[in-house]
Amino acid sequence: MDVIRSVNEDKSVHGCLMLRPLPAGLDEHAACEALRPEKDVDCITSGSLARVFTGKGAGYPPCTAQACVEILDHYHCGLDGRKVVVVGRSLVIGKPVAMLLLARNATVTICHTHTRNLAEECQKADVLIVAAGKAGAVDGKCVSQGQVVIDVGIHVSVDGTMCGDVDFSSVEPLAGAVTPVPGGVGTVTSTVLVGHVIEAAAKAAGIEPKA
């Protein structure tokens, strides 16, 4: 906790990324809450999360959740009025990305392990964001022709290769676009993190970043 207090008070530090889980014996919740939201560049505090849901306050959205939206923006995939299905409901990706999409006037459905007829729900989407936390959770049976598919997952398969939550080989022929793993969302996530730190530094210097 002394280290976090030091980070909070150190004007030369503009962002803090806390790698979790913390070592045994440390109170992870207390450690996260001790960090000032304005230095929380990956949304680990309640204050930052509140901003994602309310649009008010300090802090930043989770980098991976924002990366999904950045990818859609980069490829001019309009969100206003579009139906987006998010597979996954964690506070790290699923719920925050749903809030970011709602703020852009998308019509959002969140699916999870108790969702009935998951494939049917996924097929209804214009944009499908998969953050299920399970390798190959979504395959070609869940995808409709021309959908945009964002694969947030990252895993190491039994043969040592990296894969995502989407079964790329069965989805790619159907999708209008699908992010690869590796080289997809993760790469953009790193860029978003750098952007958050730069924005935090600018705000600390009294410079309001351009929208």
UniProtKB/TrEMBL annotation:
GO terms for molecular function: methenyltetrahydrofolate cyclohydrolase activity; methylenetetrahydrofolate dehydrogenase (NADP+) activity. Pfam families: THF_DHG_CYH (PF00763), THF_DHG_CYH_C (PF02882). The keyword Methyltransferase does not apply. Keywords: Hydrolase, Multifunctional enzyme, NADP, One-carbon metabolism, Oxidoreductase. Residues 62-203 form the Tetrahydrofolate dehydrogenase/cyclohydrolase NAD(P)-binding domain. Pathway: One-carbon metabolism; tetrahydrofolate interconversion. Residues 2-42 form the Tetrahydrofolate dehydrogenase/cyclohydrolase catalytic domain. One of its GO terms (biological process) is tetrahydrofolate interconversion. GO terms for cellular component: cytosol. This is Bifunctional protein FolD protein. It comes from bioreactor metagenome. The gene is folD_22.
